[in-house]
Design a protein that fits this description.
Blueprint lengths: L2 E11 L2 E12 L3 E5 L6 H9 L6 E6 L2 E2 L5 H7 L1 E3 L12 H12 L4 H14 L14 H13 L5 E5 L7 H17 L3 E5 L3 H7 L2 E6 L2 E6 L1 H4 L3 H10 L2
Parallel strand pairs: 3-8, 3-9, 6-7, 7-8
Antiparallel strand pairs: 1-2, 1-4, 4-5, 9-10
Helix pairs in contact: 3-4, 3-5
The structure holds adenosine-5'-triphosphate.
Organism: Spirochaeta isovalerica
Keywords: ATP-binding, Nucleotide-binding, Transport
GO molecular function, one term: ATP binding
Length: about 240
């Protein structure tokens, strides 16, 4: 059982406070949506937790350990995994080799074991044709590869940053099933940034709503969607 918790988490870029006093948590087996209009601070929150940025103030706890000041690669080794909003496959490598990177670098496996584990993981995601270059695979396969790369780091907590973007409705349903299955099987804590509210409804147990860096509402999506402050944040944000 693991828990990721932020405590008054804040970051300012010059005069702009992109994450402002954010308190939230995700526990093993939970899928929490992180929603809000464009520029609300969703990706910044993930970047803070993953260690791409260090907070201006506040803390990030993984269980009873304060991870706020440790570098990204150490957070990854402790169990913080994530996908990226802008997909960046390692070009020149095959699909299999891309997935192997997590096993090699985060889990420090040897080549042979990393290859075997990567094959097994891709099989569970129904990702085939692993010797193809990343430029030859379709968008659903690309998304599966990105999820596999994150899983290959053996996370306790995994953040998915708009992984459904660009998928058609059938592919989206498949991706939702995959994420739910993984979260259950691995007892993962999952944070999901997503603009499509149909995905949020089907996938998450609860959400936090960010607006200009602050949490303005939290709870099950159906309740939060009725909140007047949330409605006006979306209208004001143009989303
Ligand atoms: N490295 C940075 N330097 C300066 N400003 C930044 C930096 N990273 C993010 N910001 C600003 O912080 C705010 C929040 O950005 P962020 O990307 O977290 O929003 P978001 O909710 O993920 O938006 P979107 O839904 O459009 O992806 C924006 O105003 C953005 O310009």
């Amino acid at each position: 059982m693991s828990e990721l918790r932020t405590e008054n988490l804040t970051i300012s870029f010059g005069g702009l406070t992109a994450t402002n006093d954010v308190n939230f948590n995700i526990k093993s087996g939970e899928i929490v949506g992180i929603i809000g209009p464009n520029g609300a601070g969703k990706t910044t929150l993930i970047n803070l937790i993953a260690g791409i940025y260090y907070p201006t103030s506040g803390k990030i706890w993984l269980d009873d350990r304060d991870i706020s000041q440790i570098p990204a690669h150490e957070r990854s080794a402790l169990g913080i995994g994530r996908t990226f909003q802008l997909i960046h496959p390692l070009e020149g490598l095959t699909v299999l080799q891309n997935v192997m990177t997590g096993f090699l670098f985060a889990q420090k496996m040897g080549l042979k074991q990393a290859r075997e584990e990567a094959r097994k993981l891709c099989k569970t995601l129904e990702l085939t044709g692993l010797d193809r270059a990343t430029g030859e695979i379709n968008i659903l396969e690309t998304k599966k590869m990105e999820i596999a790369k994150a899983l290959a780091t053996n996370p306790k907590v995994m953040f998915l940053d708009e992984v459904m973007a660009g998928l058609n409705s059938t592919e989206t349903l498949e991706a939702i099933d995959i994420v739910k299955q993984i979260a259950t099987e691995r007892n993962l804590a999952v944070g999901v940034v997503e603009h499509v509210m149909g995905v949020i409804t089907k996938l998450t147990h609860s959400v936090i709503v960010l607006d200009t860096g602050r949490i303005i509402a939290s709870g099950p999506y159906k309740e939060v969607a009725q909140n007047e402050r949330v409605k006006s944040a979306y209208l004001g944000g143009g989303a």
